[in-house]
Amino acid sequence: MDKSYFIQLAASMAAVAALVGLAAWVGISRPGGPLDVERVRAILAVEFPGRTLDAVWVAADGSGALARSGGMALVLCPIGDGFAARQIPWAQAVSSSFRNGQLRIDLADIAAPVATIALPSWPPKDLAA
Amino acid sequence: MKAFDPVQMATPLFIITIILEIVLARFGKAKANYETRDTAVSLSMGLFSGVAGLLTAGVAAAAAIWAWQYRVFDIPMTAIWAWVALILLEDLTYYWFHRLSHERRFWWAAHVNHHTSQHYNLSTALRQTWTGGLAGTWALWLPLAFLGFPPAMIAIQKGVSLVYQYWIHTEAIRRLPVWFEAVFNTPSHHRVHHARNPRYLDSNYAGILIVWDKLFGTFQPELDEEPCRYGIVKNLATFNILRVAFHEWIGMAADVLRHPRHVLGYVFGRPGWSHDGSRDTSATLKAAWVKSREKDG
Fold it and tell me: To the nearest 10°, the Cα dihedral for B220, B129, B153, B83?
């Protein structure tokens, strides 16, 4: 590899940085705002069609949510201006670590390793079983 | 002698048009959304895909030259008919490469990162694979060299195809004239290809000519009543570029280690295949969608 290759690579890196900076400065991400129960239900209906939701918990800051659907927990993780959804056994969600108002769910997925959801308490007493 | 590389030549055009798309979207003149970290991942994937490609470029070039030594015909690089024939045959090869890359997990593992953005803008076009060369898909182009097309000619046409496919990654262009939509791959057709709606899965594999999808039964028009939702069936919850590049390879390796008796299914089955049927493939998602539509009347 000659010197011109590295010059070209460095110039490309500078161009990438400039474009990312422009995108950040201009601020044209998808409009969203914090989640509420209705929006969570709507998103989960698309992600898991036909599933009945027994209960929904929305993060205190509106970023992320958790729902129980029978024996499964449906988890909504915020990612940029969008969301990623995963399902795990309900028992696994119930036993997830809860410290300082943060529920930390290990999703055991290389593409979605952990979901952190701010909740006032966990697990819910009436639905823990 | 410096080789003619259409992608390298088009790089300034990539930069200018991304700036244009962002600015037009900012002033409400074009439809486009750019999320900062998503854009950073897309552009960085593109930047380093070139570096990763160097690892296997020599092998791919050597294989093409080897195949060309045993060519059936002597095809001149200067003849117009030869270029017309190559445009058609290379595009047909691309169609099957692309279909294989979606319908078999081993090659999906290399291609999936191109589909991981939940956005569809010009930066998404540059979210290119780092592992395509290792997956060996370049071998699909060897028959062209064996037929007699010079390897340099094939490389140029592959580059032209890649540059063509850049501009169709946009929401800024809604529909093009009917005759163009009928023959060529367009932003509308390719939006469908990047959509994760069950109705749109596994469709529109075309490179330049959409006619291949119409011929082989994989064409799906974009429908106004069903806006595209972009990304993959199980969207990523991370912007970690290493996870974006390698997550499917790691997932596949984990499945093989857990279920060695089902190695063929987990490596060469359809994405989402599982030995116990506990996961969703495009086919099961489509079937569930059809069932839910019938239920809703």
Answer: 10
